[in-house]
Design goal:
The complex is a heterodimer. By secondary structure, chain A is mostly helical. Chain A has one domain. Chain A is 70% helix and 4% strand. Chain A has a two-stranded antiparallel ribbon with strand order 1-2. The longest helix of chain A has 43 residues. The model of chain A has no long low-confidence stretch (mean pLDDT 88). Chain B is mainly alpha-helical. Chain B has one domain. Chain B contains two helices and no strands. The radius of gyration of chain B is 63 Å and the shape is rod-shaped. The mean pLDDT of chain B is 87. Classes of the chains: A mainly alpha, B mainly alpha. At the A-B interface, strand 2, helix 1, helix 2, helix 3 and helix 4 of A face helix 1 of B. Chain A: It is a multi-pass membrane protein. Chain A: Keywords: ATP synthesis, Cell membrane, CF(0), Hydrogen ion transport, Ion transport, Membrane, Transmembrane, Transmembrane helix, Transport. Chain A: Pfam families: ATP-synt_A. Chain A: Key component of the proton channel; it plays a direct role in the translocation of protons across the membrane.
Chain lengths: 234, 169
């Protein structure tokens, strides 16, 4: 039985060979879609919005407002980061709907994003409060809580990363097993050349594991990132 | 096909961080910043337009009141001017009439003086003529009987009696 890990698409011939997985390739496709969309959608902005401009404005406005509502008016400069995170995670989580492996079903992706959030938490926390004020926060409410606080801070990116990864990879594995099972079942019916049972039945599971879970986990990841960063700054 | 482990950190980790940062920078530059700026500018423009319209309205209101005041003022002024002109004209006509009356009076006075002088002159002339006539008449009547002395005396007497009383006025 083949593993559920990311597949190596090709290997870069430097060092000992850097494997490029389908996670990275799918991310590139998603990036191309998002970048293409941004360039095309903002190319012909008119004074009176029409067509795609309405959708673009609504999208950016929603993301800006979400950031302001969650983080506060003074942290509106996070909107591009939060917006990018939201759009990327949304597309990545829904990537399973078109039959590819979700980039977020890879611990490297989720942990990478979680590390970025971790850096933002501590970077902006230090910047806003000063090094002394920031370090003093680790002794709150009592000095002997220091180890617990450090563990808590380190747990943040891990929990962020594994929550998303677990949900997505779980959905991915279940869908893979389901498709495999349905193929076998079709074979048992003598239809191994045409797995007819794969039509229809997986839709319900896609709805839950990809659509529902994907959107929900996107939202959770983004909201938690915002809350952690703004908490560190306030 | 080779597969990597399901839960292992590898090169993909760095790729994903770089990918995400690139995506962040590009989307920030091409999507979030321009669209947000565009929307903010539009909101500002609309706000400005509304404010300007409001300002213009107030300005128009002020101008309206101003012009209305001016119009009222002009009406008042017009009435005042007409009144002034009428008054001046009346004064002037009074003056002219008065001056004319004065002049007429002076002319009459002068005429009276002239008349008096003329009369005096005529009286004097007449006196002279009468004396001459009387002398002529007398000399005719008593040509031979009177000598030069009586003659002279008679004339003087005549003049004294007649001239002073009869021709006085």
């Amino acid at each position: 039985m083949e593993g559920f890990g990311p597949r190596v698409v090709f290997t870069l011939p430097i060092f000992d060979g850097i494997p490029i997985t389908d996670t990275v390739v799918n991310t590139w496709i998603i990036m191309a879609i998002l970048i293409g969309f941004s360039i095309i959608a903002t190319r012909s902005f008119g004074k009176i919005p029409r067509g795609i401009q309405n959708a673009t404005e609504a999208l950016v406005d929603v993301l800006n407002k979400l950031t302001v509502q969650t983080m506060g008016e003074d942290k509106v400069f996070f909107a591009p980061y939060i917006g990018t995170l939201f759009l990327f995670l949304l597309l990545a989580n829904l990537w399973g709907l078109i039959g590819f492996r979700q980039p977020t079903a890879d611990i490297n992706t989720t942990f990478g994003l979680a590390i970025l959030t971790f850096v933002a938490i501590h970077g902006f926390g230090t910047k806003r409060k000063g090094v002394g004020g920031y370090l003093k926060g680790f002794l709150q409410p009592l000095p002997f809580m220091l180890p617990l606080n450090i563990i808590g801070e380190l747990a943040t990116p891990i929990s962020l990363a594994f929550r998303l990864f677990g949900n997505m990879v779980g959905g991915f594995i279940i869908m893979a097993l389901l498709y495999g099972g349905l193929t076998s079942l079709s074979g048992a019916l003598g239809l191994s050349f045409f797995p007819v049972l794969q039509a229809g039945i997986p839709v319900v599971f896609h709805l839950y594991f990809d659509l529902f879970s994907g959107v929900l986990q996107t939202f959770i990841f983004v909201m938690l990132s915002m809350v952690f960063i703004s908490m560190a700054m306030d | 096909m080779t597969f990597l482990g399901l839960v292992e950190l590898n090169w993909t980790f760095f790729f994903m961080i770089v990918n995400f940062l690139v995506l962040y920078l590009v989307l920030k530059k091409f999507l979030f910043k321009p669209v947000t700026e565009f929307m903010n500018n539009r909101a500002k423009n609309i706000e400005d337009a509304f404010k300007e319209a409001e300002d213009k309205k107030y300005e128009a209101q002020a101008l309206y009141v101003d012009y209305k005041d001016k119009l009222d003022h002009i009406k008042e002024e017009r009435t005042q001017i007409i009144k002034d002109a009428t008054k001046r004209a009346e004064e002037r006509s009074d003056e002219i009439i008065k001056a004319a009356q004065q002049e007429a009076k002076e002319i009459i006075q002068r005429a009276n003086v002239d008349i008096a002088r003329e009369r005096q002159k005529v009286i004097n002339d007449l006196k002279d003529q009468i004396s001459t006539l009387a002398m002529m008449a007398a000399s005719k009547v008593i040509e031979k009987e009177l000598d030069e002395k009586a003659h002279q005396q008679l004339i003087q007497q005549f003049i004294d009696e007649v001239g002073d009383t009869t021709w006085q006025n």
